[in-house]
Amino acid sequence: MILYPAIDLKDGNCVRLLKGEMDAATVFSDDPAAQALAFQNAGAQWVHLVDLNGAFAGEPVNGGAVDAILAALNVPAQLGGGIRDMATIESWLSKGLARVILGTVAVENPNLVRDAAKAFPGQIAVGLDAREGRVATRGWAEETDLQVTDLARKFEDAGIAAIIYTDINRDGAMAGPNIPATEALARAVDVPVIASGGVSSMDDLRALQATKVISGAISGRALYDGAIDLGEALAMLDNKAQLR
């Protein structure tokens, strides 16, 4: 299981939100590139990036910060937030991102996901963010009646690299991930599933790994607060950095 340290970008800073609320942002660093480099130096195999402003705006906003991060890193990075057309996908991948995460468009324009996965094999992930099992879009500001598993199954044959499942009510709350829901999704679809939201302790990581079906876990606040030591966690999970 791969551990993805997270950098959430708001107004050029590295922040964490509480349950997806932009007004409940805590700034952890005003130098996201330095933070990304620190994660790499600790042994991270991947870095997970989110353009929070972009998720609400529907287009990239923190491009300068992402460019600086990519210039600093030698390990692959994935990015979500505000990526809603093929031109944006192509632009980000051409700048050196290893993978882009499509969330809102997976609901609103699923054919774009399919076309992108065909055009960029192994570089397209789908981000499914949910409250009480129902998918939310547009920076979690809008809720749908779609069930996570039903939507995920629509992309099983599309050739996507992964599904990133976030339980919004757990995100940033240090309350532990929704392991039953994440495991159920991972068993229901033939696509690697990455857990996100509430991963806040070494025990959480052990429990996720123990399912044997969850391929990765994203953690942010717990790393910044010191609840998880990245080096120890990577050693426990036996992650090996794959320099590109």
From TrEMBL:
Q: Which InterPro entries match?
A: Aldolase_TIM, His_biosynth, HisA/PriA, HisA_bact_arch, Isoase_HisA-like, RibuloseP-bd_barrel
EC number(s) stated in the UniProt entry for this protein? 5.3.1.16
Q: Which GO terms describe its cellular component?
A: cytoplasm
Q: What domain of life?
A: Bacteria
Annotated GO biological processes are: L-histidine biosynthetic process; L-tryptophan biosynthetic process
The active site of this protein is located at: 8, 129
Pathway in which the depicted protein is active: Amino-acid biosynthesis; L-histidine biosynthesis; L-histidine from 5-phospho-alpha-D-ribose 1-diphosphate: step 4/9
Q: Which keywords describe this protein according to UniProt?
A: Amino-acid biosynthesis, Cytoplasm, Histidine biosynthesis, Isomerase
Q: Catalyses which reaction?
A: 1-(5-phospho-beta-D-ribosyl)-5-[(5-phospho-beta-D-ribosylamino)methylideneamino]imidazole-4-carboxamide = 5-[(5-phospho-1-deoxy-D-ribulos-1-ylimino)methylamino]-1-(5-phospho-beta-D-ribosyl)imidazole-4-carboxamide
**Pfam short name (any one):** His_biosynth
User: What GO MF terms are annotated?
Assistant: 1-(5-phosphoribosyl)-5-[(5-phosphoribosylamino)methylideneamino]imidazole-4-carboxamide isomerase activity
Its top-level enzyme class, in one word, is isomerase
Subcellular location per UniProt equals: Cytoplasm
Q: Where along the sequence do coiled-coil regions lie?
A: none
Q: Which family does it belong to?
A: Belongs to the HisA/HisF family.
HAMAP family noted in UniProt: HisA
PANTHER family per UniProt? 1-(5-PHOSPHORIBOSYL)-5-[(5-PHOSPHORIBOSYLAMINO)METHYLIDENEAMINO] IMIDAZOLE-4-CARBOXAMIDE ISOMERASE
Q: Which NCBIfam families match?
A: 1-(5-phosphoribosyl)-5-[(5-phosphoribosylamino)methylideneamino]imidazole-4-carboxamide isomerase (TIGR00007)
Protein name (database record): 1-(5-phosphoribosyl)-5-[(5-phosphoribosylamino)methylideneamino] imidazole-4-carboxamide isomerase
Q: Which organism is it from?
A: Boseongicola aestuarii
